[in-house]
């Protein structure tokens, strides 16, 4: 999920709507919201800071590996994602990521570019097309995105 912007109740609703998951990732602008999630026992929560997350201890990006899939998580504001994904894809190549998960634009979408799956779950709170989040299914080193509406 991404861009919860302080709406912890809606973030919790998104988490519950995901169903059973092994990992929850928050792509920024709601770092504190991610820390406050009541995730099931044993569910890891990874979050990065976005441009609205001033004063939080979160990193601007994280690289995680799950089921043989390397994922770059970044909010996207430092890579100019409003203008395009070129800089973000370049960073993905530098860290050898198979998937880049980002937010910032509040618009959900996924596509494969230069061999990398670029996934934006949209915004849980401020989305002109309706609140959204994504579930990333990982199996056998492959990633399949699923964007869901709240």
Task: Explain what you see.
With 150 residues, the protein is of the alpha/beta class. The protein has a single domain, classed as Purple Acid Phosphatase, chain A, domain 2. Helices cover 17% and strands 33% of the residues. The termini are close together. The mean pLDDT is 94.
Question: Any guess at the CATH architecture?
Answer: 4-Layer Sandwich
**In CATH, what is the class?**
Alpha Beta
The CATH superfamily is identified as Metallo-dependent phosphatases
- Using the CA coordinates, give the radius of gyration: 14 Å
SSE sequence, one letter per element: HEHEEEHEEEEE
Rounded average pLDDT:
94
Q: Number of helical segments?
A: 3
Shape: globular
**Biggest sheet: strands side by side, in what order?**
3-4-5-7-6
Count of extended strands:
9
Distance between the termini: 11 Å
Beta-sheet strand percentage?
A: 25-35%
The largest pleated sheet is described as: 5 strands, mixed
Poorly predicted parts: none
